[in-house]
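Appendix B. Chain record.
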Amino acid sequence: MKSILFFCLTFIGTTLFAQECAGRYQTEIFSTVDITTVEFGSNLNMAGNTQVLAMEIYQAQGDSAVDRPVVIFCHGGSFYGGSRTSPELVSFATTLAKRGYVCASIDYRLATGIFDLINEEKMVKVVFGAVQDGKAAIRYFRKNADEGNSLGIDPNQIFIGGTSAGGILAINLAYVDTLAKLNTSWQSWATEIGSLEGESGNPGYCSSVSGVFSFAGAVGDTSYINPNDVPFYSCHATGDETVLYNYGPPLNGLAPVNLYGSGDLETRLNNLGIYNSVDTYSGSDHPPLNGNNNDTTEAHLSTFLYNLLDCNSANLKHTDQQDCEDFTDEPVDTSVLGISTLHEVLLFTIYPNPSAQFVTIESEKTISQVQIIDLFGRTVKTEITNLGKQTQIDVSNLSNGVYTLKVFIENKWQSTLFVKQQ
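Structure tokens predicted for this chain:
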């Protein structure tokens, strides 16, 4: 009798389960995926040139549904490398498309090199430039839905996430919904490149998301997250030194800022009662997607997304969760718009660079002061007054490494990077 009862309950539960979302999104129900490449925008890159932004769109072959959720992936690479064809993103996008999602893996603008990321202003502009590109990708899908919906998507169910830098992009995109959340300097730098929305394409459409995920990402401050913010999934290794699991500077301590990793994000979200799921792994792999970890992440990401879908009657969204009805597009100050602020012509030259003992600074204008600042923001050398139009600085006592050299000319500071090496 118990066996019959168990069979009946199991059958009923399985039947109800299959009816949820028309049997889609939890298991692979298609066998083949079509991949198409489209351009979704363009903007000035960090070298001051126009860069076309493209994405790969993954759809199950033969899928005729017209209200499919969208999952956008952003690649890793520390904001100066990486590709939208990164293997883990291709794998995740393919398996989710087989479950019935529309997936995309996107370009975003990168730094010209690692030195851009150890100068705080340039780093902030790189990161929020990338956020702008992510927002343009989101707007692309909503524009498509508005203009005939050839992609068959539900514009009210768009998710974004990524690996490492891509995770940082996605988390900031989801939780920094107003410049007022940033400190004063970051607000100013973000405004200079076009505020949060930017001009990377598809203006006039909402860029909010329904959920965010990361594989070893982080955020500038957990206070960015409000009680009605969207849910979060992450996987992260506790010994990760590229992006710390808790709090600290990324890039093995070379970055000029501290970030909060998945551990601190989980604490904040739990305190606010926001649905989240964090897979914590031992070791230091960045991201922790080797072997069984990859399978676990794939399964848990799929569950996380399913738990937020409107077709799932047991979804875990807050009733007052932010959506496009709450969206506001902050005005852009066009008087300061543009990446060109990163390429201001310097009023001085320095040589040799790198240098072991002396560095010479020359200018057509009078040099009033020189400062050398290390990666921790500490001023390690200052030369002031009566330096003339040429001065030589002794750097022989500095440790080998990368420094910011600041020169005060014509009532303003200008900065460049300097490398001390033997």
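Further analysis of this model is presented in Appendix C.
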